[in-house]
Design brief:
This protein has five helices and seven strands. The protein is of the alpha/beta class and about 200 residues long. It is globular.
């Protein structure tokens, strides 16, 4: 089984993505950046999710010499003209906690009626390997922002996001339930399909 750098130190992400890729049958062993202490922090200053994902994926290749994948996720809230958008992880500041980001978003939506609290998560996964043109894959999950957090699982905005067709937040779902529908699942499953094709062609 070949190795694939997952260009992040976020353990929540690594655990979630590892489960997704294993279920999708991706023929790779995922390795987080914690295994490369010298890997630099990437300044996510791109104009788009794909820009940021590519910056991180290239950094993974540069520090390891191995194929690398990275994702960037945004939360686009219609009533806020798309905010927090690509700055979702840094909405309340560069070192903001998940709780701080949630508080700021709920405050920004105070007084907005339920029917106008529509939102969507967008995840872009980029794959970079030596000698291969970079590839990107996109997944989306539409839903709405509720008025107060519910649930203890998940991370990020999961406690305040209810997907369309559900009455539960992502944080009220099991990891398996969330992974089946999530934006990250949709994007990484496309990467898994690509990697399976590469494995078959090289085998």
């Amino acid at each position: 089984m070949s190795k694939l750098i997952l260009s992040t130190r976020n353990r929540h992400k690594i655990r979630e993505i590892s489960a997704i890729m294993a279920e999708a049958g991706a023929p790779v062993e995922l390795i987080g950046l914690d295994n490369y202490p010298g890997a630099p922090e990437v300044e996510e200053n791109g104009a788009t999710l794909e820009d940021n994902a590519l910056l991180k994926a290239h950094a993974g290749v540069n520090c390891s010499g191995l194929p690398s994948a990275a994702d960037d996720t945004g939360l686009f809230v219609d009533a806020l003209n798309g905010a927090p958008g690509i700055r979702a992880a840094r909405y309340a500041g560069e070192d903001a906690t998940y709780e701080a980001n949630n508080r700021k978003l709920l405050a920004a939506l105070a007084g907005v009626p339920a029917e106008r609290r529509t939102a969507r998560f967008v995840c872009v996964v980029s794959y970079v390997a030596p000698g291969v043109a970079p590839l990107s894959f996109c997944g989306e999950l539409a839903g709405r922002i509720i008025e107060s957090p519910r649930g203890r699982d998940g991370f990020g905005y999961d406690p305040i996001f209810v997907p369309n067709g559900s009455n539960r937040t992502l944080a009220e779902m099991s990891a398996a339930e969330k992974n089946r529908i999530s934006h990250r699942n949709l994007a990484f499953r496309q990467l898994a399909v690509f990697l399976r094709k590469v494995a078959r062609s090289s085998g």
